[in-house]
# Entry
Amino acid sequence: MADEKKQNLIRKLQALAERGVGGEQETARRKIAELMAKYDIEEMDLSEEKVEVHDFQYHGEFEERLLCQVIYKNAEMSDIYKKSSGKGSRNTYFIYCTKSQAVQIQIEYDFYRDLWKEEIDLFYKAFVNKHHIFPESAEFKNTLSKEETKRLMFMMLSMQEKSPVLRIEGGD
# Structure
């Protein structure tokens, strides 16, 4: 049996060991161990992906923190390098990981970054409304859904009660 065929058989058994039902999983695991010993195949030989350098761009302090969190979640952090550009430009992290890890990192980072932008927009609206940072005569049309309005109200309730008037008077 050619090496590639042996490795493909073991990969198929690995899939069965992960997705199989009941006794299939245990039987597949035993067969994998048996075949790997018989054909002198190492775990690394089965890996379809090599560890390579992948780059991830971010902009600003929050995006950097978020990217690092996603990287820590998805890849071992043995080697990570940061390249900073001038202020206001994109910065880059270079890490050693597999292609599938890089894809997962990028997907999660893009998702959470976009979600953050949505959340921060709602937080801003809650903050402005909580502290009445608008003209007294302003009239507003509520363009938020019922769910967003409910979330906005809860956010406002959880915010601190502070006023610049109290600061001027020396109270807070």
About this structure: The chain has a mean pLDDT of 79.
